[in-house]
Amino acid sequence: MAVQSPCIGICRINARSGLCEGCFRTVEEISSWTRMRDEERGQVIWLVEQRQAEAAAFD
């Protein structure tokens, strides 16, 4: 099964963090998503989860 994009349709890059405010990916991760293998996408998903947890800790 293909790894699904974490995009939720809120596409704004935070100037301070460099991450999308909706999916917590970098511009590079977003732009290369369609060319990534599932293994690479899984790594990005893991990073996204870590970033989300870190952001939640500051809320």
How would you portray this structure in words?
With 59 residues, the protein is mainly alpha-helical. It has one domain (1-59). Helix content is 44%, strand content 0%. The chain has helices at residues 27-32, 38-57. The longest helix has 20 residues, at 38-57. The mean pLDDT is 96.
Keywords, please?
59 residues; mainly alpha; 2 helices; globular; single chain; 0% strand
Write the layout of secondary structure elements.
Blueprint: H1 27-32, H2 38-57
Can I get a quick summary?
With 59 residues, this protein is mainly α.
The portion of residues forming beta strands comes to under 5%
- Biggest sheet overview: none
Mean pLDDT: 96
Q: Which class best fits the helix and strand makeup?
A: mainly alpha
Rg computed from alpha carbons, rounded to a whole number of angstroms: 11 Å
- Inertia-based shape: globular
**In which range does the helix fraction lie?**
40-55%
Number of helices: 2
